[in-house]
Each structure stands twice: as structure tokens, then as C-alpha cells.
Write a structure and sequence with these properties.
By secondary structure, the protein is α+β, with helices and mostly antiparallel strands. It contains 13 helices and 16 strands. The chain is globular. The structure holds S-adenosylmethionine and zinc ion. The site of S-adenosylmethionine (SAM) has 16 residues, from helix 7.
Length: 472
């Protein structure tokens, strides 16, 4: 082919694609990002634009007729018009927009096959048509993503009718790719001939495969129930300071009930908050021997940073570090305001570059000292806050851990439970060494975190072991 330049080499309407990509980031329902967190996942519409632009010729939208000096600008304007229709994330759009995007995807599939048929004809010196490709007599365009991460590029390549291949070095990414690209196609639909837990019974009286989503939901609930029975007591409900409960009913606080989809929901008795996150900071002892206070290493203490709109006020919540006189340990106070300035302090001035300043005497615990303390197994941790949800109300409730000392887990008791669980199940705390120092992405070994097990607090470790125990 004399000119095989592709659209991506000539022009893509970046501004429009970027705007749609930002919008897509806020769409949660039905998006692959909700399957599993992947830090580097690219927006689907941007991947769609890249795959499309890489497979159709630069000349695709250039009109045959018209003045030569205008052809290129007309071509680009046509390309922009088409790509704006193609690169939309349809999930929460109006039905007519959704239908038009579907239509644009079908057109894009045709454009890609036309370009591919032309290339195959040139390469094989034999006429290849779109029909040949569609009917399997000629291959589809192959798209290989050797660094596929969360699978956004191969997913869009599949959507555009290509044969997609995905690779990744990271086993988590590999599993995400299987769950995004392979399993939904292979196991997605109900199958009356396959055994399952959620489908109708067959003639032998066995339940059949009710679809991948139903089966995953069933087994997810099964795991949840077992894990909750093992460790649910370690995450107790918290009395709501706004409306304290009259009494705590321990049995009720663990009760699960199925909703209309069969998904297990936690039944929350009135007057309680549900804890969803416990926020901790690591600590070291002050370097100044005459001080010896506990120095928090937290970088910043923001909890919520929401700008106000026309109708709703902003919400800014952060922890204020208080160093009480004659004490050796800071307190964390939850401060809330409708503006950032209204907080009255800057939550972002914590440790910098691994150096933390003692709030009591001002001595800097430099990063070398912090690392040495870590290696000597003298690094501690302090719970700062508990983030909770209040049933049937939007937004989180933040509580200072200092006001709720009874909710700070007892590590010794938990360590005993870990030993007991390991004895009972044959599991072990992972004692394998971390990758060698200098491995990309691993910067924790200098702080004395030598094994995988060292990464977790006792309660986190017990929780992970309980999940593993429930499925083995
Ligand atoms: C920027 S991410 C890719 C993100 C992806 N486009 C998405 O939308 O999710 C780069 C990926 O390359 C993977 N990677 C790095 N080195 C690799 C190698 N030598 N072989 C295979 N994958 C590798 C990483 O594990 C990471 O998932
Ligand atoms: Zn000090």
C-alpha cells in the first residue's frame, strides 16, 4: 500500500474525547472499574478512540469531491463529528443517545473491516471482502495489548469487532483481564446443561447455571456469611452520637437478610453507625531523648473535601492534630466546615519526604531515623479516626478514635485468634520475603517490612486469613 497512514497519525478530536473521558470517570454503575480497582485503567472512550484511530486510514473522512485546499479540513471536521458520536460512554445517557452510540459502534466496526479487507487484499494479492472476514474466510484484525492492566484497550478492541489479545506481568491484572474479557463471554448466560446453584432444576433435580452474575452473587454471599461468623464481632456497630441507641443487641447487630435480589444486607438496629474504615497512622518515638513523645507519621489528615454547589453547601472534614500539654501522645479532633478556610488549619502539613516533626517539641524525626526505627521493629501505630455510614443517609460520619477507645482492637487477643485459626485450618501467616530492595513499586523494605505478613495489622491479617479459610 502506498499510503497506510492511519487516522490516529493525522487527527483525533482530543478535547471532545477528554471531556467524555472525564465524565466516564464519574460513572460507576456497570463500568468495568467497579469489577476490581486497577490504578492505571484508562477511560474506555479514550481506548475506543485509540483503537479506532489506529485501524482506519487517515483518509477515511476526506471527501472525494470539493476544492483540494479544503479537503483535509473537511475530512477532519467529519472525523470529529463521527468520533464524538462513537466515543461516548453510554451507561447513563438518554435512550436515544445510547441507541446512536450503538449505531456509531456498528459503523466503526464496518470502517475497520473495510480498511482491514483492503490491507489483506494488498498483502495477499487476492481480493478479500468484508463479507469474507465476517464469514470467517479471512482473519479479523488482531489487536495485541502487551501491557493490558485493567483490560480497557482489549475490551474496546473486542467491542469494535477485532480479535483481542491481552497480556500482563501482574497476576492481579491477569485475573481482572480474565474476568473482564473472557469469563463474561464464556460463562455469562444461564446454561440449563451446566451445574450451578442459582438456575432452575434439571430433570435430575440438580440446580443449573443461573448466569455468571447470579452464581458470583450466590458464592459471594456464602463467603460473606462464613467470614462474618468468624470475625464479625471485631467490627462492631458504633452508637450514633446524634441519636444514641437505648441498648445494644449483640445478636441483631450481626444479622444478615437477603434483599429482593438475594444479596445479603446487614440489618442495622436503630441508633447505630456502621464502621466502613478505620484510619491509622504509623508512629515513631521522638528522636529527642528528653521528649520521647509518640510522633505520628501521617502526611495529611483530610477526610472529606467536597465543593459546594448552587444548592448544597460544601463539606470539608479533616483531623486536627492536638498535642496536649503534659501528655506524650497526640489527639485527633474531627473538624468540619462548609469551606476549606473555615477549618481554621491546614490539614496537608504532615510529614514531608519521610521527615515528621514532633508536635510536642518540634524535633524532626528524619527519614533515616524513621527507617532505622522501623528496622529495629520499634515503629508503632495509632488509630486516628473511624469512618462510618449512617443507614439511609448519604455521606460518611467521621469519629475521632480518641473518643471511642473501646473500638480500638486488642492486638494481643487478635494474635491469639490468628494462632487458633491457623491451627484449626492449617493456614499460615505469609512469611515469604518481600521482593528485593529496588523492585519497582516496592519502597517499604527500608522501613523494616521484610515479609508479606508484615504488611498488615493483626486485625487485617485475621480478616484475610478468615476469607481464605472460608474458601479452602
Ligand atoms: C499503565 S498500565 C496499563 C493500563 C491499561 N492500559 C489499562 O487501561 O488498564 C501498564 C501495565 O503494564 C504491566 N507491565 C509492566 N511491565 C510489564 C512486562 N514486562 N510485561 C507485561 N506487562 C508489564 C503492568 O503490570 C501494568 O499493568
Ligand atoms: Zn518531641
Amino acid at each position: 500500500m502506498s499510503d497506510d497512514r492511519r487516522l490516529i497519525e493525522d487527527y483525533l478530536p482530543f478535547q471532545a474525547i477528554s471531556a467524555e473521558a472525564s465524565r466516564e470517570k464519574s460513572v460507576r454503575k456497570g463500568h468495568i472499574s467497579t469489577l476490581h480497582l486497577w490504578w492505571a485503567r484508562r477511560p474506555l472512550v479514550a481506548c475506543r478512540a485509540a483503537v479506532y484511530g489506529a485501524l482506519v486510514p487517515a483518509s477515511r473522512f476526506i471527501p472525494e469531491n470539493g476544492p483540494d485546499n479544503k479537503k483535509q479540513s473537511f475530512g477532519r471536521a467529519n472525523a470529529a463529528k463521527f468520533m464524538k458520536r462513537l466515543c461516548r460512554y453510554p451507561s447513563n445517557s438518554k435512550p436515544e443517545v445510547k441507541a446512536d452510540t450503538e449505531c456509531a459502534i456498528k459503523e466503526a466496526q464496518r470502517h475497520i473491516l473495510e480498511a482491514h479487507a483492503e490491507r489483506l487484499t494488498w498483502e495477499t494479492v487476492k481480493k478479500v471482502t468484508v463479507k469474507d472476514i465476517e464469514e470467517g474466510r479471512a482473519p479479523r484484525p488482531k489487536v495485541l495489548d502487551m501491557f493490558a492492566g485493567g483490560g480497557a484497550i482489549p475490551l474496546e478492541a473486542l467491542r469494535l469487532g477485532c480479535e483481542a489479545y491481552a497480556l500482563d506481568l501482574n497476576p492481579v491484572a491477569h485475573i481482572i483481564e480474565l474476568c473482564t474479557l473472557v469469563y463474561p463471554q464464556k460463562y455469562g448466560k444461564p446454561d440449563p446443561n451446566a451445574q450451578g446453584m442459582t438456575g432452575p432444576k434439571n430433570e435430575k433435580g440438580e440446580t443449573t447455571w443461573g448466569s455468571l452474575a447470579e452464581e458470583v452473587r450466590y458464592w459471594g454471599n456464602w463467603v460473606l456469611k462464613k467470614v462474618r461468623a468468624e470475625i464479625g464481632d471485631l467490627y462492631p456497630l458504633i452508637p450514633d452520637p446524634e441519636k444514641p441507641p437505648r441498648e445494644l443487641v449483640p445478636d441483631e447487630q450481626l444479622s444478615l437478610f437477603p434483599d429482593e435480589k438475594g444479596q445479603l444486607k446487614l440489618k442495622v438496629p436503630g441508633g447505630f453507625l456502621v464502621p466502613v474504615a478505620y484510619l491509622w497512622t504509623r508512629t515513631v518515638r521522638c528522636k529527642n531523648p528528653s521528649c520521647g513523645a509518640t510522633v505520628p507519621l501521617v502526611k495529611q489528615t483530610w477526610l472529606c473535601k467536597k465543593k459546594g454547589g448552587n444548592k448544597s453547601p460544601g463539606r470539608y472534614v479533616a483531623l486536627k492534630v492536638i498535642a496536649p500539654k503534659d501528655e506524650k501522645k497526640v489527639r485527633f479532633e474531627v473538624v468540619e466546615a462548609t469551606t476549606q478556610a473555615g477549618l481554621g488549619f491546614d490539614p496537608s502539613i504532615g510529614s514531608k519526604g519521610g521527615n515528621a516533626t514532633c508536635p510536642f517539641c518540634g524535633t524532626v524525626a528524619d527519614s533515616g531515623y524513621v527507617k532505622a526505627e522501623g528496622c529495629a521493629k520499634r515503629m508503632g501505630e495509632q488509630m486516628m479516626a473511624i469512618a462510618c455510614i449512617r443507614p439511609e443517609r448519604k455521606g460518611k460520619v467521621y469519629l475521632s478514635a480518641d473518643d471511642y477507645p473501646e473500638f480500638i482492637p486488642d492486638d494481643e487477643v487478635i494474635r491469639k485468634r490468628i494462632d487458633e485459626l491457623c491451627k484449626r485450618t492449617g493456614l499460615t501467616v505469609p512469611g515469604e520475603p518481600m521482593p528485593p530492595r529496588g523492585t519497582l513499586g516496592f519502597r517499604i523494605q527500608p522501613y523494616g517490612i521484610d515479609t508479606w505478613g508484615d504488611l498488615f495489622t493483626p486485625r487485617q491479617m485475621l480478616c484475610l486469613l478468615a476469607i481464605v479459610a472460608s474458601v479452602c
